[in-house]
Structure formats: structure tokens, C-alpha cells
Amino acid sequence: MAEEFVTLEDNSSNQVQVSREKIKHLLIGSPNVVKTTIHRLHTIGYAEVGSWSKPVIAGSLGESGDVVSLLIR
User: Fold this and answer.
1) Strand 56-57 vs strand 67-72: parallel, antiparallel, or unpaired?
2) Tens of pLDDT along 8-54?
3) pLDDT value, residue 4
4) What residues contact residue 38 under an 8 Å CB cut-off, 6+ apart?
5) Which of 1, 33, 60, 69 is a plausible cystine mate for 29, CB 3.0–4.6 Å?
6) Integer distance in angstroms from the first to the last C-alpha of the chain?
7) Phi and psi dihedrals of 32, rounded to 5?
8) What DSSP character marks residue 53?
9) 5: number of CA atoms within 13 Å, CB side?
10) Between residues 37 and 4, which one has the greater pLDDT?
């Protein structure tokens, strides 16, 4: 499936470098939901818990009491 998105320009080379664009993940929600989601993503092997930013107040991004945490991968 992922191969659909990768174009190989030189088929004669055994080693192909693929440049990946970084993706930014934002989690916005109650502190408990954000923490739980970060731990679930860690459990399935997607991202280390320590890779996420410290949750901060979401302000206008969320509802009252919401926090936001960022992962760039």
C-alpha cells in the first residue's frame, strides 16, 4: 500500500533514498483524553510518549479546559 506513494526514479540502484516529508500531529482535548491517546499511540508502536510536546492550554483551539500536544514525525 505504501508503495503506491513512492516513485523510484532509478530501478538499477539497490539502495534508494526516499525523502519523507515531516507530518505534524495535534491532539486537542481534555488533559485525560490527550494523555490516554498519547499512551495508546505508544502502545501500538507509533510514537514514543516522550516525543510529544508537554500539553499546554489549547486556548481558542479547543473548548474550556482543553489542552494541546504536538508531535512532529
Assistant:
1) antiparallel
2) 555 555 566 678 899 999 999 999 999 999 999 999 999 999 999 99
3) 57
4) 27, 47, 49, 52, 69
5) 33
6) 20
7) -65, -45
8) P
9) 6
10) 37
User: Is 28:7 a contact under the CB 8 Å cutoff?
Assistant: no
User: Cα–Cα distance between 34 and 9 in angstroms, integer?
Assistant: 41
- The whole-model pTM stands at 0.71
Query: Which pLDDT score, from 0 to 100, does residue 18 have?
Result: 76
User: Cα–Cα–Cα angle for 67, 70, 73, nearest 5°?
Assistant: 160
Judged by DSSP in three states, 60 sits in: helix
- CA–CA gap between residue 36 and residue 12 (Å, rounded): 46
For the chain, give the number of residues.
73
H and E: helices and strands count for the chain: 1, 3
